[in-house]
Write a structure and sequence with these properties.
Residues 27-134 form the Rieske domain. This protein is α+β, with helices and mostly antiparallel strands and 350 residues long. The chain folds into two domains: 27-135, Rieske Iron-sulfur Protein (3-layer Sandwich); 148-343, Naphthalene 1,2-dioxygenase Alpha Subunit, Chain A, domain 1. It has helices at 13-23, 170-178, 183-186, 290-310, 332-343, and strands spanning 28-32, 41-45, 48-55, 58-63, 77-81, 84-88, 95-96, 102-104, 124-128, 131-135, 156-161, 203-207, 210-219, 234-243, 247-254, 257-269, 272-281. The strands form four sheets. The protein has a seven-stranded antiparallel β-sheet with strand order 11-17-16-15-14-13-12, with helices on one face. 37% of the residues are buried. The structure holds FE2/S2 (inorganic) cluster (FES) and fe (ii) ion. Residues 182, 186-187, 304 line the site of fe (ii) ion.
Length: 350
């Protein structure tokens, strides 16, 4: 019985397999670019152990398992073989160059060719927005969504690369960031007030690979509403962009300026998520103000964390299961996000 999974901790095998397979053909952030120097680094993506290594101008991504006797390659180091960089296994010194090609087997008798089976699978990697992104499929379904404020010098930016993983799925994390009807309940006094719990009038549409949502609302004055003091609520417009399925950019425009919350989530696995945040503002831009803004962002994060981690099933259920009871029109953006996930084959079963 599918519904039994509502009370069990573990989703069905089918739901987990669907999530892992459905999420493969997308770019996922796995590490801050600044955290990858000349040493290889182990990461996990969709349940798979991977090793990242800088080789010349490129970032190479392989399974973190040597083709010889399966030692962990991230315990090795980058060396030079025939004038080219290669990742050397710590166990018997096999070395793997760009594209995963096995470039050296020290134990191979003279004149014998390196067997093709020694080569590793190389996954696609790129650097953007200060992060390293990996795609486990040959082809990514969508390109990375735009982030105009990232390269705009008018914006002061703060990064928050969470060291601690969230105990949730990446899709629940994105949905929790897209959800605005929780503001008065979880962020009372900061993002809303329980005196006005009525949801705003959402407009929702698709733009290429992005789900876009726009609405007007009022929020208490503060750091994220133009930095204003005083007591009067601030009128502002939210425009939210979800880069399907794992990136979200919330743009808050108020008379005081623009505040942007950008999140890229890494689906470490179906129940483990690592969050990479960037907060940008074009007001109150003095660098010494960053600590105050970081503190506020971290505070809001701590308010959301226990709620999002408490949600079951771990993975978003499909609509046909009728597990959820979304209320229109307030929950319309969430419905649209989930429908798109189903279409992409990421949500398949309970
Ligand atoms: S296990 Fe890697 S070289 Fe032997
Ligand atoms: Fe929240």
């Amino acid at each position: 019985m599918a519904r039994a999974h509502l009370t069990e901790d573990q989703p069905s095998e089918e739901a987990i397999a669907g999530f892992r397979a459905g999420m493969r053909p997308f770019w996922h952030p796995v590490l801050a670019g600044a955290d990858l120097s000349d040493k290889p680094v182990a990461v996990r993506l969709l349940g798979q152990r991977l090793v990242l290594a800088r080789m010349g101008a490129t970032v190479q991504v392989f399974p973190d398992t040597c083709s010889h006797f399966q030692a962990q390659l991230s315990l090795g180091k980058v060396v030079t073989v025939d004038g080219k960089p290669a990742l050397q296994c710590p166990y018997h010194g096999w070395a793997f160059g760009e594209g995963g090609r096995c470039a050296r087997i020290p134990q191979l008798p003279e004149g014998r060719k390196i067997p093709a089976a020694a080569d590793l699978t190389a996954y696609r990697a790129r650097e953007a927005y200060g992060l390293i992104w990996v795609c486990l499929a040959e082809q990514a379904t969508y390109d990375l969504p735009p982030f105009p404020e990232h390269d705009d010098p008018a914006f002061r930016k703060i990064r928050l690369n969470e060291a601690e993983e969230m105990r949730t799925s990446a899709t629940r994390m994105i949905m929790g960031t897209l959800d605005d009807t929780h503001f008065p309940w979880v962020h009372e006094g900061i993002l809303g007030s329980q005196d006005h719990p009525k949801p705003p009038e959402h407009e929702v549409w698709r733009e290429g690979s992005q789900l876009v949502l726009s609405y007007e609302t009022e929020q208490p004055p503060g750091l994220m509403t133009g930095g204003g003091a005083g007591a009067a609520p601030v009128k502002l417009r939210y425009t939210d962009y979800v880069g399907m399925p794992n990136v979200i950019r919330l743009v808050k425009d108020s008379p005081g300026g623009r505040y942007v919350i950008w999140l890229a989530t890494c689906p470490v696995d179906w129940n483990r998520t690592r969050n990479f945040w960037i907060f940008a503002r074009d007001y109150d831009t003095a660098p010494e103000r960053d600590a105050t803004y970081t503190e506020m962002a971290a505070h809001v994060r701590q308010q959301d964390k226990p709620i999002i981690e408490s949600q079951r099933p771990w993975l978003l259920p499909p609509f046909w299961s009728k597990v959820e009871l979304p209320i229109r029109p307030g929950d319309l953006p969430l419905i649209q996000y989930q429908k798109w996930l189903e279409k992409l084959g990421i949500v398949t079963a309970i």
